[in-house]
Amino acid sequence: PSPTSDRIIHAFGHQHIGLTLGGITGRIVADLAEGRAPNFDISAFDPGRFNGR
User: Fold this and answer.
1) Structural domain of 11
2) What distance in Å separates the CA atoms of residue 20 and residue 35, rounded to the nearest whole number?
């Protein structure tokens, strides 16, 4: 979710492998939107990792 709103989910940055990663990205976004934990740890992709959150 976005740091400014729990209702915004950012899902981008796939560069040239967007079609390859589209399926898993969709699954992760769906899980987050439904309030479920994704099947694996996505904390490495948290933008807050850069500001010490």
Assistant:
1) 1-53
2) 25
